[in-house]
Specification:
This protein is an all-alpha fold and 89 residues long. The chain is built from three helices and no strands. The protein has one domain. Helix 2 packs antiparallel against helix 3. The chain is flat and about 50 Å long.
Length: 89
């Protein structure tokens, strides 16, 4: 049962990864691209967590945490630059 759920989750995340890549490429505006890149990184984080569970290795969880923090900061910076055309004050 656990393996079936695992493979379904990996297949679902892989499908979502493909859809989000297409959304990044074909997005009509810059803000939609920023949001879809954020969604793409969240899907990659979910795949890293699934891989960490499959390999029984906590190092991938550390990588997922670092990727989440970098993604958060990058999304904030990109959104601020898009709205105000400046990053700092």
């Amino acid at each position: 049962m656990h393996e079936t759920v695992f493979y379904l989750a990996v297949a679902w995340m892989t499908g979502l990864l493909g859809i989000s890549v297409m959304l990044v490429i074909r997005a009509p505006s810059a803000m939609v691209r920023i949001l879809s890149l954020d969604m793409l990184t969240l899907i990659l984080i979910a795949l890293l967590i699934l891989y960490a569970d499959a390999q029984r290795s906590p190092y991938y969880l550390d990588a997922a945490l670092v990727l989440a923090l970098l993604s958060f900061v990058a999304s904030l910076a990109a959104a601020r630059y898009h709205s105000e055309r400046k990053l700092f004050s």
